[in-house]
């Protein structure tokens, strides 16, 4: 399941641009521009450290690199989510400030760009990568990211990573790490990427390797661009956008908090979002100390998610407009915005979610809404709501479980976890949920079908298939509804279609899909 922001750390963290010309260096008084941690005593000029035996000194391994390695192993061995594992680990080991930034960039950047680095490493290792000890392979990937993605000077990247290998994998593998990373360091990133593209069997494979996407995902994204009236030559930009950590975007829930309320936002720098009137962009990456977030008046939410929710709430319905339903609400990001909007309009929200632990998250997300805004938070199968409560709602949101291919930038490891076989199960469920939502809405009411995937099988094909079977639904002008939801003066580029597909490389949002439908009499 995917598509949620609140419970996976929203921003996805990290600052990797994944760009072809590498990234910024890391330097301050404790972490040198070599990305190497200086001990506090040394930076103070304290000579007592020299009393340590030289062999012990050599074995000291940088805590930031060890933390990155340990998270990579958790991700591999326990299917963990890096952005759930890393922050507590940094806290537990008291890794802070620049060191925490370095560990974060190293972890998330290595995970995102794993495909690129594996293709490069494969040319430097004399046996197939899948035969290597997975821990050793992770060390090599971490070294490759320091060399090619973080501008850590070669000698520091190699020697620190060899130290990490010695500490975590063993002395023998450490020698191999030394030899392999020296070969990696012989060329700059651009040269490596040209080699990958030149030696690939076709252009798409070359691009997928260079921009670190599984081939099936690169192919699906290319088809999605074409199916949404965009040029397939945009694929390189789209894949590159997936490799850049998104800026943290907040939602100021209407009626609960104003952007101008200084006390609510504390000491952080905020700028207005690009599209949604509710969106604020955080200049920095840690929203946890913001009072409005702690109190549930605001949240971390991609601007695309805000825009599709605002579009559903704003599209006109004739007659009664009192009961709104979020059919797949967990963890509750869109439900909280929808509930705030419902409260302003005298309507009430029912939030449904099949997974009990996610229904609990929805309750938490809705806790700050005014009395009367929420009729109920339920745990139940959304596929049954249409038969259990036919025609009972005026507006229904189906934010369907999906592959999440539109939010790859947010979840560093997800592209390597998804497989094409996930699609079959998801698209069946998506059809059933949309059909149920159309039964649950009254004639004249509206349904928003939303995914955070642009995959055509999860978006256009689901809608077309479901509508083929019924004569009581009309497609609405979704671009017009999205335009009406924009902040004043914003002018959003949208394809000439009756649905809307947003794109990271065009709109700076997740690749959200929205189709608005009206149930006819
Ligand atoms: C894309 S997420 C929804 C994200 C949510 N709208 C938000 O903004 O926070 C999809 C949700 O659908 C839930 N889900 C999956 N199958 C479902 C079903 N049959 N009925 C209801 N919810 C379901 C998943 O557990 C997941 O929480």
Automatic annotation (TrEMBL):
Keywords: Methyltransferase, RNA-binding, S-adenosyl-L-methionine, Transferase
Statement: the UniProt record of this protein carries the keyword Transferase: yes
Record-listed E.C. numbers: 2.1.1.176
Start-end of Gly residues biased regions: 9-19
Residue numbers binding S-adenosyl-L-methionine: 328-334, 353, 381, 399
Renumbered residue ranges of the record's region Disordered: 1-64
Domain SAM-dependent MTase RsmB/NOP-type positions: 224-520
Biased composition (Basic and acidic residues): 20-32, 43-63
Single Gene Ontology BP annotation: RNA methylation
Superkingdom classification of source: Bacteria
Molecular-function GO term, any one: RNA binding
Catalytic residues, chain numbering: 452 (nucleophile)
Family: Belongs to the class I-like SAM-binding methyltransferase superfamily. RsmB/NOP family.
Name listed for the protein in its UniProt record: 16S rRNA (Cytosine967-C5)-methyltransferase
Organism (species): Promicromonospora sukumoe
């Amino acid at each position: 399941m995917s598509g949620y922001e609140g419970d996976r750390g929203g921003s996805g963290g990290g600052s990797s641009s994944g760009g072809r010309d590498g990234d910024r260096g890391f330097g301050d008084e404790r972490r040198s521009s070599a990305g190497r941690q200086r001990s506090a005593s040394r930076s103070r000029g304290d000579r007592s450290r020299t009393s340590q035996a030289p062999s012990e000194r050599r074995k000291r391994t940088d805590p930031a690199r060890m933390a990155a390695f340990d998270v990579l192993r958790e991700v591999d061995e326990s299917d963990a989510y890096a952005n759930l594992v890393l922050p507590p680990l940094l806290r537990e080991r008291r890794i802070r400030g620049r060191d925490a930034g370095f560990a974060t960039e190293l972890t998330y950047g290595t995970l995102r760009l794993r495909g690129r680095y594996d293709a490069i490493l494969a040319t430097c290792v004399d046996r197939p990568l899948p035969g290597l000890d997975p821990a050793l392979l992770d060390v090599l990937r971490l070294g490759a990211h320091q060399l090619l993605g973080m501008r850590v000077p070669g000698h520091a990247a190699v020697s620190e990573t060899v130290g990490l290998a010695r500490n975590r994998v063993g002395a023998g593998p450490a020698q191999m790490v030394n030899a392999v990373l020296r070969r990696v360091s012989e060329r700059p990133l651009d040269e490596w990427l040209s080699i990958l593209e030149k030696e690939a069997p076709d252009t798409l494979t070359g691009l997928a390797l260079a921009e670190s996407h599984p081939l099936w995902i690169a192919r699906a994204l290319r088809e999605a661009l074409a199916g949404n009236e965009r040029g397939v030559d945009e694929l390189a930009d789209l894949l590159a956008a997936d490799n850049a950590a998104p800026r943290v975007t907040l939602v100021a829930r209407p009626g609960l908090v104003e952007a101008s309320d200084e006390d609510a936002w504390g000491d952080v720098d905020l700028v207005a979002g690009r599209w949604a009137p509710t969106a604020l962009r955080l200049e920095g990456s840690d929203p946890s100390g913001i009072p409005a977030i702690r109190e549930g008046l605001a949240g971390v939410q991609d601007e695309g998610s805000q825009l599709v929710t605002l579009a559903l709430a704003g599209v006109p319905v004739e007659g009664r407009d009192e009961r709104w339903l979020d059919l797949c609400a967990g963890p509750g990001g869109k439900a909280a915005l929808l509930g705030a909007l419902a409260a302003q309009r005298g309507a009430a929200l029912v939030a449904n979610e099949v997974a009990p632990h996610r229904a609990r998250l929805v309750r938490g997300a809705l806790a700050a809404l005014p009395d009367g805004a929420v009729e109920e938070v339920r745990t139940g199968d959304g596929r049954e709501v249409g038969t259990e409560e036919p025609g009972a709602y005026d507006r229904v949101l189906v934010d369907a479980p999906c592959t999440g291919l539109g939010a790859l930038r947010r979840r560093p490891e997800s592209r390597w976890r998804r497989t094409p076989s996930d699609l079959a199960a998801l698209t069946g469920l998506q059809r059933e949920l949309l059909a149920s939502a159309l039964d649950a809405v009254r004639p004249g009411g509206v349904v928003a079908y939303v995914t955070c995937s642009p995959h055509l099988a999860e978006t256009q094909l689901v809608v077309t298939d479901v509508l083929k079977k019924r004569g009581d639904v009309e497609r609405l002008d979704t671009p017009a509804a999205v335009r009406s939801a924009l902040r004043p003066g914003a002018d959003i580029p949208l394809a000439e279609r009756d649905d809307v597909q947003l794109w990271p490389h065009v709109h700076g949002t997740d690749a959200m899909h929205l189709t608005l439908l009206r149930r006819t009499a």
